[in-house]
Design goal:
Largest interface: A-B, 51 and 51 residues
Order of helices and strands of chain A: HHEHEHHEHEHHHH
Shape of chain C: globular
Bound molecules: adenosine-5'-triphosphate, magnesium ion
Number of strands of chain C: 10
Distance between the termini of chain C: 21 Å
Number of helices of chain A: 10
Shape of chain A: elongated
Oligomer: heterotetramer
Largest sheet of chain A: 4 strands, antiparallel
Order of helices and strands of chain C: EEEHEEHEHHHEHEEE
Number of helices of chain C: 6
Distance between the termini of chain A: 25 Å
Structural class of chain C: alpha/beta
Radius of gyration of chain C: 17 Å
Strand content of chain C: 25-35%
Strand content of chain A: 5-15%
Structural class of chain A: alpha+beta
Chain lengths: ~290, ~290, ~220, ~220
Amino acid sequence: MFSVKMALQSILREKWINFLTMATLGVLLFIFFAILLVLYNVERLTSKIPSKLSSLVVLKDDASKEEIAAVESEAKRSKLVKTVDFISKEAAMEDLKKVFKSDDFILKGFGENPLFNSFEIKFKSDEDVKTSDIKALISKLKTHRAVDDVEFGQAQMESLSALKHGVRTIGVTLSTTFACAVVFISYTTVKILFYRRKEEIEIYKLLGATRGFIRLPFFLEGAIVGFCGGLSGAVMLQVLNKITLSKLTAEIPLFAVVNIPFTVFLLFPVIGLMLGLGGAVLAVGRVRY
Amino acid sequence: MFSVKMALQSILREKWINFLTMATLGVLLFIFFAILLVLYNVERLTSKIPSKLSSLVVLKDDASKEEIAAVESEAKRSKLVKTVDFISKEAAMEDLKKVFKSDDFILKGFGENPLFNSFEIKFKSDEDVKTSDIKALISKLKTHRAVDDVEFGQAQMESLSALKHGVRTIGVTLSTTFACAVVFISYTTVKILFYRRKEEIEIYKLLGATRGFIRLPFFLEGAIVGFCGGLSGAVMLQVLNKITLSKLTAEIPLFAVVNIPFTVFLLFPVIGLMLGLGGAVLAVGRVRY
Amino acid sequence: MIVLDKASKYYDAQAALKNVSFSIKKGELAFVTGPSGAGKTTLFKLLYLAETPDDGTITIAGFNTSNLKEATIPFLRRNIGVVFQDFKLLNNKTVFDNIALTLRIRGIMERETKERVHSVLKLVNLRHKSDKYPATLSGGEQQRITLARAIVGEPTVMLADEPTGNLDAENEDNIMKIFKYINNKGTTILIATHNRSLFTNTGKRVFYLDEGTLAKEEIA
Amino acid sequence: MIVLDKASKYYDAQAALKNVSFSIKKGELAFVTGPSGAGKTTLFKLLYLAETPDDGTITIAGFNTSNLKEATIPFLRRNIGVVFQDFKLLNNKTVFDNIALTLRIRGIMERETKERVHSVLKLVNLRHKSDKYPATLSGGEQQRITLARAIVGEPTVMLADEPTGNLDAENEDNIMKIFKYINNKGTTILIATHNRSLFTNTGKRVFYLDEGTLAKEEIA
Ligand SMILES: Nc1ncnc2c1ncn2[C@@H]1O[C@H](COP(=O)(O)OP(=O)(O)OP(=O)(O)O)[C@@H](O)[C@H]1O
Ligand SMILES: Nc1ncnc2c1ncn2[C@@H]1O[C@H](COP(=O)(O)OP(=O)(O)OP(=O)(O)O)[C@@H](O)[C@H]1O
Ligand SMILES: [Mg+2]
Ligand SMILES: [Mg+2]
């Protein structure tokens, strides 16, 4: 079609400036996705941190089986709880022996096992598990006759959930700000690219061109520039991925878990195209006669 | 001076396009510093993680004072070591009592203290402390007659230093990439801004203007646009700081530690100015007659 | 074909055109003259709707410009061929593409476009400049390209603003011949010029503008 | 003042100017004429060094353009006032600033600049357009602004390319009077024009260019 030819001609005519615009869009998208990937992978890494939220419910030595079962079912009913494990005093002794390692002769000195039966409760690590809720559950459990005491690593729990929350908040803030910036800069770049064309559009109008005829080549040009920009961004990301990340993984096995979903590379040109097209639509604006 | 007047006039004449350029520079600088700040604060946060690199040197019960002192001085001589603390078997017992908390009656069952004297060695947490060096030191210590065994949390140590190293590598890669991108986009924006001025420069030349006369207003314009861009970036960062961060701090006390050094705000306009000026210098290029 | 009824145009309270009324019949060839700044170009701008009159009404090629829907403006303009005083050529397109644009806008097939563009280029003696860019042409060459662009669409009305300002006597004659030729084929033509020799002894009507008012109208 | 010795200029193997030799004495007023595309503007471009000759040498205002250091070009140009065929006005500056630029470039004080700009504006009858932008002026007004800019620097050589193409007879006379006046004060002037009436019966030398060669030289 003629519009396509015109758009391509126009891009070729002003190679340099179009190249700059494409490169700008590419770099922007690249950075945007790089940020998103870092956030995505930080999220993945933090989710691999084993859930450390657990409590130890110490049971009285003289508690009956029924009383103990009541405590267990109370704990299991709660939505906050992931697992409830019964640890007999014998099992606890085995654990203690591990602490003293080869020196378990120390413990052999005991006549009777001096330890106690207990439940280890592991809580869910979702961010909607609130410390206050857990505290409420704990005081409930304490009312049971069978329960001697409940130990709960509160400080630990709070700092961990705060960290996760913080990472998430920073992530959302950063990527939102960034998305706005990318859209804005894309718009600006395309706008500046078309700013010089006012006169051209003026002449088109005077020759009797309809709105569609005037705008189509500009839209196509914006779309093509955006598409190519996105493509170049994808290439940059791939290069970063191959060079930096593979080096990093070789050095630090932890990073082997970092993952770039393939769809991202398909997204690049699409988002680039949309940015370029959107920028062109806004830049050309409403054509008035 | 006349050049200043001309630059100002030129900026005012093309308010819209200059505004876009300023805003673009502002947003870029803002993002750049936001990233740097995140990295800076992540660095600060990780450096607050207490050094967990320690070893326990278990001493034989029959070791003489001299032999023990030899071990201590050997450990202290190493550049890797931060502190060496002697823990007598009595102190170790106290610690053990703490583990059993209120249930210390268990331990009272022992006749003689079954524990041992030991040294706790804390290693420096610099990234130039290598696991291999620490292992070498440990095998050296094991050759002492007084030493029974050395316990060392190797896995823990490796994952922590890897994490720190990873954060640092990501940080450097990200901020370098970003710095390049900021410079590139600034250049592009300013270049596009001046692209339309070719004709203007041509006319200046034909009227007999010297190189300096032609270039000065452009440089001034670039500098002013860059300066204002930097200023607007500083304002954005301040807004983010006041709104987002203060909210975040209220919610998660951990973030109280986040800090924006004041000099950053002074840096903004300066860097903006340099970017604008540099862009203008490159954009105008060498004036030939 | 063209009717002006008390048309006025003000630029910041300064009248560029004041109460101008005249009418030109279909197929007529007429001239507008007057000193620099008299309002000739402004009059043309009103006719091809680059400006709207502040007062009065204008009818051209059957369209009444006062109650025109915006969407019909392009179609009005396709009926009017304009030789712009400042050429208004697109510097990023070749001579061929500049002229072809007029036809491409109308959706005319590429084959026909090629033929028609080449024939008008021959008419203004610039067939050999077809692939050049406007900036590499001499002033007179650019002016002739503008004329070629105006006539390639075979408009019903032709407005020529100072079409020979950059042309020598020989080219001037050639261009007047072109005007007469297309006028004979039925095109209504209005020519704005300072060059009295263009209209002396033609027997055509000449409108004299002075400071925005129609000072006199006479047969040359 | 101006000496051309076998000057030639080629654009893609096509000669725009071929072996042109002539010389113009200090204080002389001469004309260049010839059909559209003959090479008049190209000749001027060589004289004010917008183009370098592919062959031959050119001497103007005491400078030999073949062995000129780049840094002295601006100073050569300050001695030459040019009326450009395509005006070359800055659209983002007012009429006043456009003209004043010539003086500001030379570092002339603002007070003197103001006086001189206003006096040349009066000379071309556009004192009242001082604060307008070029795009809002009529074609003839723009042309006169270009002339005003060329003379405000009191150049030793004046090159006027088609200076009356957009002007009516009255303005034309006025401009020729200005040329004669500054010529009498000692400025060497070369005028390129299609308009024979400008030079007929002036008794000045006229150079006829045709397809880039100097076809003839005669006293009008
Ligand atoms: N956009 C504008 N804004 C302000 N004044 C304008 C504008 N356009 C034209 N004028 C003024 O209106 C008057 C008439 O201008 P116009 O271009 O119609 O003159 P003209 O007859 O074509 O002159 P010329 O023969 O020199 O081309 C002039 O004084 C001009 O300065
Ligand atoms: N930059 C250029 N590149 C290629 N060809 C050019 C260039 N400049 C001028 N020419 C060609 O050189 C020839 C002479 O051009 P020039 O502008 O000197 O003519 P002129 O005598 O001034 O004509 P006019 O009276 O129409 O202004 C023309 O055919 C023109 O197309
Ligand atoms: Mg006019
Ligand atoms: Mg010329």
